[in-house]
Amino acid sequence: MAFDIDMIKGVYSQMAERVDKAREITGKPMTLAEKILYSHLWDGSPTTAFKRGKDYVDFAPDRVACQDATAQMALLQFMQAGKAKVAVPTTVHCDHLIQAKIGADKDLQNAINQSSEVFNFLESVSNKYGIGFWKPGAGIIHQVVLENYAFPGGMMIGTDSHTVNAGGLGMVAIGVGGADAVDVMAGMAWELKFPKLIGVKLTGKLSGWSAPKDVILKVAEILTVKGGTGAIIEYFGEGATSMSCTGKGTICNMGAEVGATTSTFGYDESMARYLKSTGRADVAEAADAIKDYLTGDDEVYANPEDYFDQVIEINLDTLKPHLNGPFTPDLATVAGPEMTEKAKKNDWPMKVEWGLIGSCTNSSYEDLSRAASVAKQAVELGLKPKADFGINPGSEQVRYTAERDGLLDIFEQLGAKIFTNACGPCIGQWGRYEDPKNAPKNTIVHSFNRNFAKRADGNPNTHAFVASPELVAALAISGKLDFNPETDTLLNDDGQEVKLKEPTGFELPPKGFDVEDPGYQAPRADGSDVEVVVKEGSERLQLLDPFMPITKEDLQGMKLLIKAYGKCTTDHISMAGPWLRFRGHLDNIANNTLIGAVNAFNEKTNFVKNQLTGEYGPVPDTQRDYKAKGIKSIVVGDHNYGEGSSREHAAMQPRHLGVAAVLVKSFARIHETNLKKQGMLALTFANEADYDLIQEDDTFNFLDIDSFAPDTPLTIEVVHADGSKDTIKANHTYNNAQIGWFKEGSALNVIKRENAA
């Protein structure tokens, strides 16, 4: 039986009535995304037709999921909310704090030894507040959610940007910051601007070396890393229904890389098969009873241009295997000759040093079986891989089943390292180098979702390319970035030319899934006597002090901290990797604030001018000096600022250090929301060209902050070192409630006040 089956049946019991009412109000057929959104309104049955991309709407998500790195700050905030128990089903998954280095067993034990304080904290908080706890080694949050919690037609939020993976089972699943999660866990409405809708029509059927991964790599090329911002992507068509559920999950997972609010597919037979295979026949039966409400209406899919804001069509019959990268997930190249030409032109290293398979994106049984079919050919053909192999199974259930069926043994015959069921290299938890900053230029290929500089191994010279698991296997065996498995041959140990056949695999395990200990721990029925301990002087955990409101006086005489140039992701603002150990200690992790951002005035990282001393130094040190002198600062940025992970640390750290405003050309959705939640000003240039007016020694005065109101730009006086001034306009997307967060210091302060009333 499924977790929370009564909750799921409750959602289904009211879905038909609410969707029918929404159709009546809007006067049109509905997409799946709209059905889920309108059936999860905080106020219940729909009464209003919302404007896409305009109206802020309150929703009631069904559940919350947190991974261990973000859960620490989310739960530290929840502990301040004044609640005895979470209001909706919530889980914590320990998958980020395990470094991949030696192999699964030793790496897991090392993580437990090093992070026991954090794991114990998360376990005790989970017990106290009624939260399901998935122990270290149990698996990667999004694969575990897909196997256990996701359900068609549901709405969930999670404190990780790849929460969207659950769209593979027909959910609207959205990545958020911890403060948003606290709202829902505390039983309050969750606010979202009603998304625009992008329809992706898939015709034909995947075959040969092409995989679901290639669909999203192609979509990323079309939309770029910001083309999906503010939108839900909905996939449909014969190509969609022909895919497996986990293949759909892969596509939805990487929708985060185009900035989409989430992605989803309509309920179909592949989802029903997956639910039954993972022990949830009861969910499949309940979904079958209302299946017409769990997919878009026929009229929508027949005439998509009439119902979506944008429509993309991809013919899977002609889709070729892709590699995306380096340094950005939207730079797409077709495998083979196109890669040869592009790599030579850009001086990308052609030798592949590592092939990595796994992560929350591609770690299902199907993914491992297809990659193993390629590896098995190499063993049988006498091919020795030219690159190293690393495998991260997605869950203990997947690992146990794959080991039982001999898949892992095939990889081990090629010398692969089987890492823990955890994120590992995908989020920088990879002990590849002793000194990554001075490591050599090289190329790796992986089935992960992101490939920003230094993302996997901390080496700025690592060129990482994203591909399907089966293509990663082929490229690792060949050792060549431009190897084309469709046409190219390889020399085996006997000097014979051999050719790899098309990969094969299993949508689901032929013998069914099996596992001895999935790693789940249910919370105590009554956790009121559980004591949550945070040791005084701990370097890993720190109880939070409320943020004080930013005043009008604070916003006068502000100093420029940094003018960031080019791509500035949450990895640049708050790096992961070794810094993950401080995710529960705001002051300690603040020492990595913006150290990866490129200073527009000298094109260096972590090297900015202190306007009080005239000296150059690290960004956090400079900001701490301003804070000590009682001076607030401003950060200026480029397009899609805050792209990438949902980590709210990228907002909380600058706030903690005294940054009061962030002024950029455009924001990534989650980061903009995180800044608002922490009581900061998240602003965009009304005229993008004004970015060029900002000089290194500038001081900023907010002239009309007293008139802060929705749909009204703010006026900023920029005073240059020579005494000259420029007056610029800054737009914002704050509504009245969000302005209230700013005035009270943070959204959490508002929650505490309301719960105390």
List the helices and strands and how they pair.
Elements: H1 5-26, H2 32-38, E1 56-59, E2 63-67, H3 68-78, E3 90-93, H4 104-129, E4 132-134, H5 141-148, E5 155-158, E6 172-175, H6 178-185, E7 190-193, E8 196-203, H7 212-223, E9 231-236, H8 238-241, H9 245-253, E10 262-265, H10 269-277, H11 281-289, H12 298-302, E11 310-315, E12 322-324, E13 332-334, H13 337-346, E14 352-357, H14 365-381, E15 388-391, H15 396-404, H16 407-413, E16 417-418, E17 442-446, E18 462-466, H17 469-478, E19 490-491, E20 497-498, E21 520-521, E22 558-563, H18 570-573, H19 586-589, E23 608-609, E24 616-617, H20 619-628, E25 633-637, H21 649-657, E26 659-664, H22 669-677, E27 681-685, E28 699-702, E29 714-719, E30 725-731, H23 736-744, H24 747-756
Parallel strand pairs: 2-3, 2-5, 3-4, 5-6, 8-9, 8-11, 9-10, 14-15, 14-17, 15-16, 17-18, 22-25, 25-26, 26-27
Antiparallel strand pairs: 1-7, 4-21, 12-13, 19-20, 22-28, 23-24, 27-30, 28-29, 29-30
Word description of this protein:
By secondary structure, this protein is α/β, with parallel strands linked by helices. It has three domains: 305 residues, 2-Layer Sandwich (Aconitase, domain 3); 179 residues, 2-Layer Sandwich (Aconitase, domain 3), CATH 3.30.499.10; 205 residues, Aconitase, domain 4. 31% of the residues lie in helices and 17% in strands. It has 24 helices and 30 strands. The strands form eight sheets. It has a seven-stranded mixed beta barrel with strand order 22-25-26-27-30-29-28. It starts with a helix and ends with a helix. The mean pLDDT is 96.
